[in-house]
Amino acid sequence: MSSLPRRVKSEAKAVTSEDDELPSFLNSSSESEEEEEEWEPKSKITKKPRLPKKNEGKSKKNAAARSAVAGKKGKKVAVKKEMDVSLPIAAAEGNRMQLLKPKEEDAGTKAKNLNQKPGVTKKMEANSFQGKNVSLECDEKPSTSIPVVGNQVKHEKSEQDFAFDEPPFKKIKSTACPEGKPVKSLGGNKIKEEFEMNWDIVQTLSEITNVEPWVCANLIRLFKEENTIPFIARYRKELINNLEADALREVQQTLEELRTVAKKTHTMMQKLKKEGKLSGCLLTALLNCRTLEELDHVTAPYKTGSKGTKAQRAKQLGLEPAALSLLQNPMELNLFSYIRPNIKGLSTIQEVEAGVQHILADIFAKDKDTLDFIRKLCQQRYICIQSALAKVTSKSGNEKDIDKFQLYHEFSCNIKNIQHHQILAINRGENLKILTVKVNIPDGVKNEFCWWCVNERWRPKQFLKPELMRILRNSVEDAYKRLIYPLLCREFRSKLTSDAEKESVMMFGRNLRQLLLTSPVRGRTLMGVDPGYKHGCKLAIISPTSQILHTDVVYLHSGQGFREAEKIKRLLLQHNCCTVVIGNGTACRETEAYFADLIMKKYFAPLDVVYCIVSEAGASIYSVSPEASKEMPDLDPNLRSAVSIARRVQDPLAELVKIEPKHIGVGMYQ
């Protein structure tokens, strides 16, 4: 402790005694000139390091080694040694002030700074000594008045980087992830896919899932880098705008569907190209497809075994130029010139008009703008789905199955309001050929669509003769009735079914979660009862650790109830069992009334017996399963179900996981 003041005094004397040890920019102009004469470039310093003068005494060397201010000829050595000395550092503001103080005050401020607390990193020491020692600047360039500003600016930055009285803060990366705030793009919303289509995958994905485009772009990149949904949801929140895991799964599934459509589209394009059927119009129609239904609609005429559409047959007869001419240059069109008496399909003017009409209808039905308009129109109108009893089934069919669908014999509902379970029921009835289903689109949609096509979208560029205008109107109506209406019905039915199936799975998950998380009844001996009439009620008593203590069969509903009551009482007293678990199957209510009557009469005294009812869904199937045979090889299958019923109360999770999910009976349809 006594050595510290001596060191401070010796260092102060060393500083005040040597004028040439002050920084060059604090000396007068004459001193700075002397400094410039002795300055050497950095390259020379590395080759020939400077050594201290020989005539300096040992005491002076030791004092210079301990002091924070290095000598003019040994600046690097002095700074390096000072970093090893665990002396306190002056505050940043004090250092900045020292740059402007005269020579006499330098020693005083240095002695004052030595009384501060130690424990600062080497990087801090180097920065804090910039006010007193300019070795870093002097090694590279001559000392002028410019380094003062540089040192001040540099020193201000060091004040922000760390505090002297506190440990250094952990820096946050502000470029990639700014403190958890959303990062809108990793590289723009334009993403190159393996199979290019006419629609942008980011924009389409955003429209379908109602997620921001920049989030969709980030998700596509993250999925491409094989990041999992748990990882993205936990550690990439700023890139996905804090989306939930369920929303991420929906986006991933939709993305896979869009990529499937793109892949199938390009496969079909290559196939049609090999067959020589790929025209420019067909190529555009294929690249515009966004769903598998649209792709099937476009490619149906070109499938193997298909006879071809009416439009294809008309094109083979050479009527396509006439159809295009009707839209673009109708003044020069003469349909009579296409009549060929010996060729079927061209023999009369009516057949020629029908062929042109089929080609035009095919063009209208595959146009992207036309389909977008009719879809938008349907969203604004009342579209309903209707089901009725099939005529064939009503004559000859299973009455039991028909009665199941009694609610849907004359059913009608708006597609926006219909429930998911109703869609599944209608689909099942249709698959069993008990119901007939159709989507009803009002006539107002058809009328508005036809007017829009004739007067706006497909309006001819020149004046049309009345007979050609009639062909155009008939073509639009034919396109709607024969091609567009069935397409819309398939799209509506497909979307409703898809949504209903998703909801049924989600509902099953919610119900199953609640069932598995039912609170267990721990630490009790339980009696499980599988009720029945003819084969009696099966009993199983299990210990608090789920061990089987006793199994038996009693006949409560065949006139032997009083005699069996003694047997049940004896078993309950023998095993000190106070809880009875009754399955909710056949004869459940009668068994419940039997036990309730005995409990009310206090028949089981001194035991305070209570009962509960539990679902026995899947217990019968489990009792004959291989798992149950391995677990309870010596028990009869009927008694196994009683054991399962008791264990469902004692530990629901451990027992229900043994049963197949489809047999638990908590879904929309069992």
Structural descriptors:
Tex-like_HTH_dom_sf, Nucleotidyltransferase, domain 5, 32 helices, Arc Repressor Mutant, subunit A, 5-stranded mixed sheet, 3-stranded antiparallel sheet, 670 residues, Tex-like_central_region, 7% strand, Tex N-terminal region-like, disordered N terminus, SRBD1 protein
Molecular structure report:
The structure is a single chain. With 670 residues, the chain is α/β, with parallel strands linked by helices. Among the domains are: 201-297, Arc Repressor Mutant, subunit A (Orthogonal Bundle); 306-383 and 441-505, Orthogonal Bundle (Tex N-terminal region-like), CATH 1.10.3500; 519-663, YqgF/RNase H-like domain (Nucleotidyltransferase, domain 5, 2-Layer Sandwich). 55% of the residues lie in helices and 7% in strands. The strands form 2 sheets. It has a 5-stranded mixed β-sheet with strand order 6-5-4-7-8, sandwiched between helices. It has a 3-stranded antiparallel β-sheet with strand order 2-1-3.
Biggest β-sheet strands, sense, barrel: 5 strands, mixed
Average pLDDT metric: 76
- Proportion of helical residues: 40-55%
Architecture of the domain at 519-663, according to CATH? 2-Layer Sandwich
CATH superfamily of the domain at 519-663: YqgF/RNase H-like domain
Low-pLDDT runs of 5+ residues are: 1-38, 42-49, 52-163, 169-180
Number of helices: 32
CATH class category name of the domain at 519-663: Alpha Beta
Main-sheet strand order equals 6-5-4-7-8
Count of β-strands = 8
- Overall structural class, as computed from helix and strand content, comes to alpha/beta
Radius of gyration: 45 Å
Shape: elongated
Question: Can you tell me the CATH topology of the domain at 519-663?
Answer: Nucleotidyltransferase, domain 5
Strand content: 5-15%
Termini Cα gap: 86 Å
